[in-house]
């Protein structure tokens, strides 16, 4: 087993402070870093020896023999145990769970985000199929702590098996229901879940608490139940590996991957990469980032996706249309550079509102305001191609205007969608898009 690298910041808030030093022996579940303000405890995911404590991570050399048992957290109130276990939003947000659920919803709702909106990722749905009971117990703990009267699983209708497992598992639960979501992106955005389930459209600045609700990810509920029932610290992560893999491009789901495992080790476990590879994405196709084989899995890693190569635009002029729910402008610039394009114009969807911290939030996720004006801007600025990062609805409306202006369209997820055999995010067929590439790739 190779060294594990455990990052000191795997959550919203400041980095944790290390509580171990080089040379220390640690067990699975030993506290190795603690928060100094907003944050969450961090634990060793292996038995081994600390080899380095760096500014941003702790490196541990695992023992050859690993035991299943772990150091349990201390008994306490349910909320104290969730705090001690260092549970954070495992869907990618990383907000400390104990802080989020320490609320009085006054008989409101805990909405379970089971949308698994990022194409290709499967670990949340598989968790429901295989471990619905414990997930539901996690929901009941959160409902009790936050004084919620109702729990609702928000899940896409297309996940028929998981929906039927859930239906069976909640048949005697009078206060837990299921809400079926359509298969569009983004349905997993927090305010989209509130809108779909409760019919309340929150402002981008409002939190779900404004609708007497908390939105919580499926895996987070599992970690809550583990903390309370098993006294288990949060040191592992469920991850989907999909893409350019030797055996096939089908998704593989790995439960309880030790946090700190390298991307390369996990890909090896999945059979290794099939060259040529364009990039490796950590996360989902829309919101993931490029990563390296050396980078570690964290508490918020959902997917690892080696992709096919990028098409070559041979230095052509490109406009970028940035969405609040897709990649950042920086990520889109990175993709443009990997396609050998030159950015000449950047626009944002007009529903992408900028928050005080610089983050973008959509005013009404998945409901397109029309994109013709942005396409006109790109044309005026001399773009031949545009790369869009939009939701399903907006990507389709781009196709209503861009081709008429002779702008050729790529979606930032195209290389991933082609890799995993998923339809591209726009109405044009794949073959028409391929024809548009200058080198005919
Ligand atoms: S409406 Fe605009 S900002 Fe909102 S999800 Fe769609 S493309 Fe993104």
Helix-strand layout with pairing:
Elements: E1 4-7, E2 17-18, E3 25-26, E4 31-34, E5 42-43, E6 48-53, E7 57-62, H1 78-85, H2 97-101, E8 108-114, H3 123-146, E9 148-156, H4 160-169, E10 176-181, H5 190-198, E11 213-217, H6 218-230, E12 236-241, E13 252-258, H7 263-269, E14 280-282, E15 289-291, E16 303-306, E17 317-322, H8 329-338, E18 342-348, E19 352-354, E20 360-362, H9 372-380, E21 385-388, H10 392-401, E22 408-411, H11 414-420, H12 430-436
Helix pairs in contact: 1-6, 3-4, 3-6
Bound molecules: iron/sulfur cluster.
Short summary:
With 441 residues, this protein is α/β, with parallel strands linked by helices. It has helices at residues 78-85, 97-101, 123-146, 160-169, 190-198, 218-230, 263-269, 329-338, 372-380, 392-401, 414-420, 430-436; strands spanning 4-7, 17-18, 25-26, 31-34, 42-43, 48-53, 57-62, 108-114, 148-156, 176-181, 213-217, 236-241, 252-258, 280-282, 289-291, 303-306, 317-322, 342-348, 352-354, 360-362, 385-388, 408-411. Helix 1 packs across helix 6 and helix 3 (123-146) packs across helix 6.
């Amino acid at each position: 087993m190779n060294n594990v690298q455990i990052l000191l910041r795997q959550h919203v808030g400041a980095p944790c402070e290390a509580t171990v030093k080089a040379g220390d022996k640690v067990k699975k579940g030993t506290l190795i870093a603690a928060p100094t303000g907003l944050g969450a405890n961090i634990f060793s995911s292996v038995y081994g020896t600390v080899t380095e404590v760096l500014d941003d991570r702790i490196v541990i050399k695992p023992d050859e023999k690993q035991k299943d048992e772990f150091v349990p957290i201390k008994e306490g109130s349910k909320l104290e145990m969730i705090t001690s276990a260092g549970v954070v939003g495992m869907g990618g947000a990383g907000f400390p769970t104990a802080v989020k659920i320490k609320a009085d919803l006054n008989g409101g709702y805990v909405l379970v985000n089971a949308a698994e909106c990022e194409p290709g990722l499967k670990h949340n749905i598989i968790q429901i199929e295989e471990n619905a009971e414990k997930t539901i117990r996690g929901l009941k703990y959160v409902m009790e702590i936050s004084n919620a009267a109702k729990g609702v699983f928000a899940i896409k209708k297309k996940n028929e098996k998981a929906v039927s497992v859930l239906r069976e598992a909640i048949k005697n639960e009078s206060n837990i229901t299921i809400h079926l979501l359509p298969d569009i992106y983004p349905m997993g955005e927090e305010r989209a879940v509130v809108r779909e389930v409760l019919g309340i459209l929150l402002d981008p600045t409002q939190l779900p608490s404004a609708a007497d609700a908390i939105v919580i990810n499926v895996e987070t509920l599992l970690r809550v139940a583990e903390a309370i029932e098993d006294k288990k610290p949060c040191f592992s992560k469920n991850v989907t590996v999909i893409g350019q893999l030797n055996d096939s491009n089908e998704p593989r789901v790995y439960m309880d991957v030790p946090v700190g495992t390298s991307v390369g080790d996990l890909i090896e476990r999945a059979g290794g990469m099939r060259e040529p590879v364009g990039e490796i994405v950590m996360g989902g196709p829309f919101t993931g980032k490029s990563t390296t084989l050396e980078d570690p899995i964290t508490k918020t890693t959902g997917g690892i996706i080696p992709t096919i190569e990028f098409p070559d635009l041979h230095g052509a002029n490109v406009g970028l249309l940035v969405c609040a729910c897709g990649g950042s402008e920086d990520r889109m610039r990175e993709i443009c550079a990997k396609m050998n394009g030159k950015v000449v114009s950047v626009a944002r969807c007009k529903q992408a509102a900028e928050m005080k911290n610089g983050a973008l939030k959509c005013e009404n996720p998945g409901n397109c305001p029309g994109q013709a004006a942005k396409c006109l801007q790109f044309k005026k600025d001399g773009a031949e191609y545009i790369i869009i990062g939009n939701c399903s609805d907006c990507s389709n409306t781009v196709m209503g205007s861009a081709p008429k202006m002779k702008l050729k369209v790529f979606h930032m997820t195209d290389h991933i969608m082609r890799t995993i055999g998923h339809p591209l995010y726009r109405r044009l067929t794949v073959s028409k898009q391929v024809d548009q590439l200058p080198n005919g790739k």
